[in-house]
Amino acid sequence: MRLSLIFTISATFLVAGILCFVAAGYAVTAIEEDSRETVLETLENNDLAWAEVDADGLQVFLAGTAPSEAKRFKAISLAGTVVDAARVIDQMLVADTAAITPPRFSVEILRHEGGITLIGLIPAATDRDELLADVAKATNGAEIADFLNAADYPQPDNWDDALHYAVRSLKMLPRTKISVNADRVEITAMTESLRAKQQVETRLTRTTPENVSLSMDISAPRPVITPFSLRFLIENDVARFDACSADSENAREEILKAAGHAGLQGNTDCTIGLGVPSPLWGQAAVLAIAALDELGDGSLTISDADISLITAPGISEEDFDTVIGRLEAALPTVFSLHAVLTPPQDTGTPVIPEFVATLSPEGLVQIRGRVNSELTRKTVGSFARARFVSDQVYISTRIAEGLPDSWPLRILTGLEALSYLSNGVVTVTPDSLDITGTTGNKEAGAKVSGFLTEKLGDASQFSINVSYQKALDPVASIPTPDECEEMIARMLLGRKILFEPGSATIDATAAPIMDDIAEILKQCGEIKMEIGGHTDSQGREVMNQQLSQARAFAVLDELRKRRVLTSGITAIGYGEDKPIADNNSEAGREDNRRIEFRLIRPEPAKEQPTGLESLEQPVAEQNATAAGATETGADAGDQNQEEPQDEQN
């Protein structure tokens, strides 16, 4: 009994131990597999699929080759977020760091009067001695300062081709800087002349290696151009240059652009040189080319600061004077202009010089024609700007010889006469002065005639053709007071001056209406008018009267702000006393809330008796008095008889 009991108990413990061992092993396996799969999934979701994951009990092993130290650290960190970081065992390797990028090889070759200077970094494989020998040979044994460094890295492709090309280029470039890279050569140099520059550029371009790009900046000293000249012609609408000079790239571009606008076709060379008489040469050339283009066929010659413009036959004198006058006014002061109007083939009719001034209805004054000196031109300009609006005077006169001594007096007199008109034209010739135009002054014609006679003398020839227009008359064109009242009433049809509710503040939408009323009143001048304010019947009567008064004053104040003469305008508030519609409806009340403009008309004067009426009046009054007394007595008697009866009723 005792042995069997012991055996039974021992067997029970043995079976229990075996079951515990099996259960523990299964649990460990489950934990390992779950940890491995979870960590592996997390790494794959974060683009770390290169990592290998294994588990042994509670420990998680990370293996594999990380692309970089940062990737390795990231894998460890992510695994630590899935399981306890203490359980993560790092067995990863890091890939070898990529080979260091070789340095950028380059050489600067400087050739100057003191010799050759080499600066830069070359591959160790480059034969340094051979390079120095080639440079010395290309420069006829010039002294070389070697500041090159070498680096033991693979030599780039095309390095030898680029370097040998740069050394060969030294033969034709006595003053230069050459920058050499494996795939590019940059050359900056100066040649002795423009021809040498072109030759060098051609040779360098032809000998460039196939796999090397070339950048050139070759300059040449500018030639001294004496005289600094330009000749431009337009013949049968075909434009060309016989000579072209410019002092800068910008001036050349502007000159060629102006010539292209004038009809020049194709590419044209314009020499950039030294010796320009003025830094404004390009501006003067552009103005002169534009003037010739406007006139048509002809020739333009500029020699230093002298400009000669000769037109082809057939150009009208009016166009010639206008264009040349404008050109003379625009040219810089250092330049002098000699313009020739070639007469037509039939020279039977002589050319008559003239001076013309035009005054437009808008006030623009245009002056063209001939003057006899620069002083006269300045005097005409000053006089015109003083007599008319200065910013509306446009002058294009030209200086001409052979004009009469009285020419300045005649043109100033003509300008003064023109100022009497609203618009018109005055034409001055050596023998006559003609003025034509319109005016709003009925006496302007007589004033102009008297003025011309006084200034030019009785024997002078002038013609006046001045017409009166009522619309131009500042007095006759003023509307009558009745017309002003009607104009405002028409303007307010379908429109209304609105106010903010319960306030005397004018609504912003009423600003255009106030502007229109102000414009009408400005035309009317000083008139007596009443601004009446009206309200509906809602609210207290006293409050309505005060509100209407305030609104009427607000309208008057807005007119003052618009510079309307308001000395004859009064503002009165009528409140609800003068309705124009039924106050029992909203529409009627809206109509009653209004501002009215009413003309204040004078009361008719009582007629005063005159002449015979004043003599007959006393006699008539005496007869009337006597008759009245008799009638009164009769009436009094009747009244005395009837009074007792009235008292009884």
Structure description:
The chain is α/β, with parallel strands linked by helices and 649 residues long. It has 16 helices and 27 strands. The chain folds into five domains: 2-94, Histidine-containing Protein, Chain: A (2-Layer Sandwich); 106-219, hypothetical protein tt1634, CATH 3.40.1520; 229-318, no CATH class; 355-472, hypothetical protein tt1634 (3-Layer(aba) Sandwich), CATH 3.40.1520; 481-599, 2-Layer Sandwich (60s Ribosomal Protein L30, Chain: A). Strand 17, helix 8 (317-330) and strand 18 (336-340) form a beta-alpha-beta unit.
Give the topology:
Blueprint: H1 2-45, E1 52-56, E2 59-63, E3 65-66, H2 69-82, E4 88-90, E5 93-94, E6 106-112, E7 115-123, H3 128-138, E8 144-151, H4 159-169, E9 176-180, E10 184-190, H5 194-206, E11 213-219, E12 229-235, E13 238-243, E14 245-246, H6 249-261, E15 271-272, H7 281-295, E16 298-303, E17 306-311, H8 317-330, E18 336-340, E19 355-359, E20 365-371, H9 374-387, E21 393-399, H10 407-418, E22 423-428, E23 433-439, H11 444-456, E24 462-468, H12 481-491, H13 511-524, E25 529-534, H14 541-561, E26 569-575, H15 586-592, E27 594-599, H16 612-648
Parallel strand pairs: 2-4, 3-5, 7-8, 10-11, 14-15, 17-18, 20-21, 23-24, 25-26
Antiparallel strand pairs: 1-2, 6-7, 6-9, 9-10, 12-13, 12-16, 16-17, 19-20, 19-22, 22-23, 25-27
Helix pairs in contact: 1-2, 3-4, 6-7, 7-8, 9-10, 10-11, 12-13
